Amino acid sequence: IRRVLRSQGRLVLGFRVPSDAAMARFPSPIYRFHTIDELTALVEQAGFQPIDVDQAAAGADLTIMVAGAR
Question: How many CB atoms lie within 10 A of CB 7?
Fold first, then answer.
């Protein structure tokens, strides 16, 4: 994605925070939950500069949004 994203382009990823309710609906063989630190590290390892990490309620779940710039 970084290779085809234009200069100064942004990537925004959304993830669910690990919780008992979320993990019951998304079994571990299919879905992996990451911490905020893990997500930030993955964005950096992919060559993006993290610019923002936000948490927002999505129904009963909490969602992490990680934005990175090329």
Answer: 6
Residue 38 has phi, psi (to 5 degrees) of -65, -45
Residue 11: closest CA among 59, 44, 36: 44
This prediction has a pTM of: 0.66
Q: What is the DSSP string of 3-49?
A: TTSPTT-EEEEEEEPP-HHHHHHS-TTT-----HHHHHHHHHHTT-E
Question: What letter represents residue 33's amino acid?
Answer: F
pLDDT one-digit tens code per residue, 36-62: 888 888 888 888 887 788 877 766 666
- Of 46, 36, 30, nearest to 14 by C-alpha is 36
User: Is 62 in contact with 8 (CB distance < 8 Å)?
Assistant: no
